[in-house]
Amino acid sequence: MNCNRYISENAVIGKNFKSGCNVIIEDDVTIGDDVYVGHNVIIKKGTIIGNGVKIEDNTVLGRMPIKSKISATTQEKELPPLKIGDEVRIGSLVVIYRGAVIGNNVFVADLASVREDVEIGEYTVVGRGVTVENRVKIGKYCKLETEAYITAISIIEDYCFIAPEVTFTNDNFLGRTEERFKYHKGVHVKKGARIGANATFLPGIVVGEDALVAAGSVVTRDVPPRTIVMGVPAKPVREVPKEQLLENQTYYKG
To answer: What is the pTM of this model?
Structure first.
């Protein structure tokens, strides 16, 4: 089997490195020990990868964003290198941009996209086909399930659960008027909050700690802490049961 690879002379590669065919590793890349890189992977200039990382086929790491002339949130600026922590798992056909920081033991599933200026905390799961737009911060021990859409300028704190097909928004003007640029704001999900499948959030919504948003809800107002909301528009229905609170879960580490 003919296996072509390009590894820059300026790249620093750790011990026990293994790779598939057609791998490209550009200048000034740093790769730790015990790293596996699959077929057709491209690792762009300056990317920093920790120890014990596994990267599956056809993934691109550290690419620069491409700015549309009418983009409201993408900025043309110098970005620091992509940083990937230890023991991270990255699936196939994933794109992670330069300027992102991926914590230790994060799992990024197939077809996910993670933009620039994003931070993802340790042990968080980014599911299949999830999109994380730019200027987003995600805490530790979160789960973002299949095809969730996390719009730009959003915050998800620690131990949050985001079910499949959840949609965040950040533009109440839907692309009209110059005034909209002053009001762009994503969604803020506070510690331990849970969001059911297909829920949709208007810009700037704050979901309180340990709150629960039922599947299919359209959230137009802030969600109180430890409260279950549901409906279109979503309204409070009762408190979250005590046994479901984050502080009462065996996996919670504070």
So the answer is: 0.94
How is 63-88 classified by DSSP, letter by letter? EPP---TT-SS---S--PPPEE-TT-
Structure tokens at 49: 């990868």
Calpha distance 200→207 (Å, rounded):
12
* Domain residue limits, the chain: 5-63+78-248
Encode pLDDT of 107-157 as tens digits: 999 999 999 999 999 999 999 999 999 999 999 999 999 999 999 999 999
Q: Which token pair is 139?
A: 């805490």
Q: Are 186 and 168 a contacting pair, CB within 8 Å? A: yes
* Residue 165 to residue 198: CA distance in whole angstroms: 5
Closest residue by Cα to residue 246 from 120, 177, 160, 188: 160
Q: Which CATH architecture has domain 5-63+78-248?
A: 3 Solenoid (2.160)
Residues 6+ apart with CB under 8 A from 55: 35, 36, 37, 38, 41, 49, 61, 90
Rounded Cα–Cα distance for residues 7 and 13 (Å): 9
Burial 231-249 (b: 16+ CB within 10 A, else e): eeebeeeebbeeeeebeee
